[in-house]
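Weekly structure sync, notes
Attendees: PL, DS, HV (note-taker this week)

Item 1: Acetylornithine aminotransferase
DS walked through the input record. Source organism listed as Pandoraea nosoerga. Sequence as pasted into the shared doc:
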Amino acid sequence: MSLANSPAVPPSNAPGAARNARFAEFPTGALLPITTRPELVFTHGKGGWLYDHEGKRYLDFIQGWAVNSLGHCHPVMRDALATQGALLLNPSPAFYNGPMIELADLLATLSGLGKVFFANSGAEANESAIKLARKWGQLHPNASGGARYEIITFRNGFHGRTLATMSASGKPGWDTIFAPQVPGFPKAELNDLASVEALIGPDTVAVMLEPIQGEAGVVPATTTFLKELRALTQARGLLLIVDEVQTGCGRTGTLFAHQQAGIVPDIMTLGKGIGGGVPLAAMLCADELAVFQPGDQGGTYNGNPLMCAVGLAVMRTVSAPGFLEFVRAQADYLSAGLQHLSSKYGGEGERGAGLLRALLLGRDIGPQLVEAARDMAPDGLLLNSARPNLLRFMPALNVSREEIDQMLSMLDTLLAKHV
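Item 1 (cont.): predicted structure, written out as tokens:
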């Protein structure tokens, strides 16, 4: 099987084609407005392409915000869903099931972290990590006998949309949207070890960070900083929590981004890419940190066999021999293409790791480019502007050279008109 899913124009009887007429009007009144959506309805997808209700196709370099590791509707995922769907959907998290056990064993082997808790989203995985660190801090109190609960996080970081993970995040303005915040998350500066040291106090139990701050505009933690942070946390008896919700599962060219710094965290969270498009996440920890007691943590769909079967198929594919080498080669190719466009149009370069990259535009035209790219004809292009002055690229990990070339050509056309 080829690692790249080549784009294909769907036949007239493709899934969703017969239902297109129902979307002639947009019955959006029943949906709670939480984002501004364009007036189009996606009906089906294949590999790197999405198709809307009018038959137009879009080259997708967002892929659900780094979710669709293998692109849209990859055969291994379809097969896993169909096979498991005919067997067992959810026996309740109070019982073992086969895919749960197999995926947990695989993740433990791949990560070196011996215990796994499954959840539905990255935010839930991060909530679990926060709870686990605080529970560990209760069992390992400070010198005065008080429970340690503070977790140092970072400005511009992003850890989710629950109250606790919003409080842990350092996204500007999030401290007032649903005030008051959950206490216990002092903010340091990324790549500034002194700022971390200055915040360590008797109540500190852990440090939590993303190896690359995705929502901040693909801002990497340096290898030196990660190494020094690991050494600092070990020296001070603190846990190191690495949020790999966006960077994990092959996205940066290694299975987990922190591996590129040669470190091992105490706790790691996964989401997005682990399910390849289905709601699945995980929190992993070292064996000695498995301090939850029955009832401390749970979830109705925790470890359900349907999602775990898909996750198992995705992780087996991503960890197969040759796959990550392919990702790294495609990443180098994409990086070179973006750098060429930056030089051509007077931008400020590009950055990132693997297939999580940003093009620094040098001016606040990102949102306009996103809209113009989507409206291109005959094919549209789906891009993301995490910050007004840049574009973020999160294609499928099996993206082809032809798809990268087509995206770069389309982006070249857009920049010529907007710069």
